[in-house]
């Protein structure tokens, strides 16, 4: 959660599943444990994915000035859009504090002044109540319009963010359609069979596109399971799926990540086809017909790291699902700090590898 969201926790009407959208602060629950398979002793984390902490971008530059080097014009436009949003937020926030201070001063004066003037003491309670009422009503009315202004500016920035990042990430695909407001149905994520007992699915920015004759859908998604009275997150990242012509039992491919990774939780009863330092494959006899030498070569091109936390691929009859786990540096949209293009560049590269893999798996 960014500093801006922390300042606005009490101003949310509806909770979101994403950390960069304003919502009430909730103490995060510990991640659920992944079911172990004692007979195999599979380690679902990779030490190679650990990397040193990256330096944060420098403080926000003045309007129109960019101090970070952007590899693409569209990525630079994201930062300009962010600056436009932050300018609106900063100015409106200053006005908000001024109005709040004036209203509080009015309430205090409405109580102190009548009690200090002998002729007004008889009416001090009435004056204090009127001052309090005027102050509170003014605050409520201003807060209503303040939220509208800030939310409008944020919505505009979010639309521009996806417009420009999509222009960079999806430059190799055709007929892309969708918007930030488009969501997937809960079952579209549950059907991947990677996570057990999913209780809540959040999604946004759902797009469909064509790549070499294949229709593919992708979105930002978050999945949680119910544990008692709390929700535990089991997936956050980019969720992508497409059709296939596969016939047979499920195949699960998991790219191991660092300690922040969230491995699949629906592993009970799956047979281990192969296990290496970075990839574990679950599948029954005949899996080798799908995981060919060329597919293995394509799989080995993926490298998890601090941003690309992990990835799970579920190959089922008729559908192939990709759950690409990403860290907050990609999934949380920059608000106060300058937009860092590196995570988006990472995602664009990962997506090209996914598309190549889809082409091989079909």
Please trace the helix and strand order, writing H or E for each element.
Answer: HHHEHEEEEEEHEEHH
| Structure summary, number of beta strands | 9
- Tell me the fraction of residues in β-strands, as a range: 15-25%
List low-confidence stretches.
Answer: 1-15, 22-31, 34-40, 52-60
Instruction: Supply Rg.
Output: 26 Å
The major sheet is characterized as: 9 strands, antiparallel
Shape verdict = elongated
**Structural class of the secondary structure composition?**
alpha+beta
End-to-end separation in angstroms reads 39 Å
Task: Count the DSSP helices.
Answer: 7
Give average pLDDT, whole number: 85
Q: Helix fraction?
A: 25-40%
Description:
By secondary structure, the chain is α+β, with helices and mostly antiparallel strands. The protein has 7 helices and 9 strands. The chain has helices at 3-7, 73-116, 124-169, 186-190, 293-299, 328-331, 342-361; strands at residues 174-179, 198-211, 214-227, 230-243, 251-255, 272-275, 279-282, 308-316, 319-326. The protein has a 9-stranded antiparallel beta sheet with strand order 1-2-3-4-9-8-5-7-6. Strand 8 (308-316) and strand 9 (319-326) form a beta hairpin. Helix 2 (73-116) runs antiparallel to helix 3 and helix 5 (293-299) packs antiparallel against helix 7. It is elongated and about 95 Å long.
